[in-house]
Amino acid sequence: MKALIIDDEKNLRNALKDLLQAFCPEITQFKEAESVVSGIEILRSFEPDLLFLDIELKDGTGFDILKQAENFSFQLIFTTAHNRYALQAFKFSAIDYLLKPIDPDELRKSVDKAKVNIRNSNLKEQLTVLMDQLASKINPDKKIVLKDSSTTYFVKVTDILFCEAEGNYTKFNIYPDKIILVSKNLKEYESLLEPSGFIRTHHAFLVNQQKIKMYDRTDGGMLILETDRKVPISQRKKEFVLQVLEKKAQ
């Protein structure tokens, strides 16, 4: 595999290269760049399998490089010291990232994922999702990227009915009747989707409150969603859910 490291700090480029040589022997060729201008030039001529890209560069940003990329045949890993909001955006788009200073174990995991996804042709679409998130756009068509064992899905957040925990997996129930099983736990998606109006009604359920039709008091309390699916409310969450529904009705 060929790797291109774009970062404006030479010591960080050297440190990452040393880690790759120590922990990722499948990467046998390296190139480096320190700016937008040199990054674009080397990206085009070197055609890496894997691009490690810093966000903030002295003459622009990593996104300036990606906007001028002629093809997206590489796997992308951002290297960043960005804040929590930016990290949420990466998670929405399912684009990989490493926090500085880079942890060797996390690096190894990222390279392993890149090897599995080496022929992924969805990077351009994932970048669109990422840019929308970073721009804080109020967009009714905002999407989240979900991946199961064989497919990448670009799903409108407003089309998600609810998410259900299945062990370490999360089952997305998409309007009207699609199911997507993702290998991440429900807690991670709770933090991502809460700002979009999702509420935890039960330890195993995360619900899009815009899809709630009514509250059914039978069987200890259930929510009826737009497709007439029923979602349970735990006793611990009942008061909170009723407060949310009361505000929604005002």
Described by the principal axes of the CA atoms, the overall outline is elongated
Q: What count of domains describes the coordinates?
A: 2
Helix and strand content put the structural class at alpha/beta
CATH superfamily of the largest domain: Response regulator
Q: How far is the N terminus from the C terminus?
A: 58 Å
Could you give the topology of this structure?
Layout: E1 2-6, H1 10-23, E2 29-33, H2 36-46, E3 50-54, E4 56-57, E5 60-61, H3 62-67, E6 75-80, H4 84-93, E7 96-99, H5 104-116, H6 123-134, E8 143-147, E9 152-156, E10 160-166, E11 169-174, E12 178-182, H7 186-193, E13 198-202, E14 205-208, E15 212-216, E16 222-225, E17 230-232, H8 235-249
Parallel strand pairs: 1-2, 1-3, 3-6, 6-7
Antiparallel strand pairs: 4-5, 8-9, 10-11, 10-14, 11-12, 13-14, 15-16, 16-17
What does this structure look like?
- The protein has 250 residues and is an alpha/beta fold.
- The protein has 2 domains: 2-134, Rossmann fold (3-Layer(aba) Sandwich), CATH 3.40.50.2300; 143-249, LytTr DNA-binding domain (OB fold (Dihydrolipoamide Acetyltransferase, E2P), Beta Barrel).
- It is 36% helix and 31% strand.
- The protein has 8 helices and 17 strands.
- It has helices at 10-23, 36-46, 62-67, 84-93, 104-116, 123-134, 186-193, 235-249; strands at 2-6, 29-33, 50-54, 56-57, 60-61, 75-80, 96-99, 143-147, 152-156, 160-166, 169-174, 178-182, 198-202, 205-208, 212-216, 222-225, 230-232.
- Strands 2-1-3-6-7 form a 5-stranded parallel β-sheet, with helices on both faces. A 5-stranded antiparallel β-sheet has the order 12-11-10-14-13.
- A hairpin with a 5-residue loop joins strand 15 and strand 16.
- Helix 4 packs antiparallel against helix 6 (123-134).
- The longest helix is centred in the C-terminal third of the chain and has 15 residues, at 235-249.
- The radius of gyration is 21 Å and the shape is elongated.
- The mean pLDDT is 91.
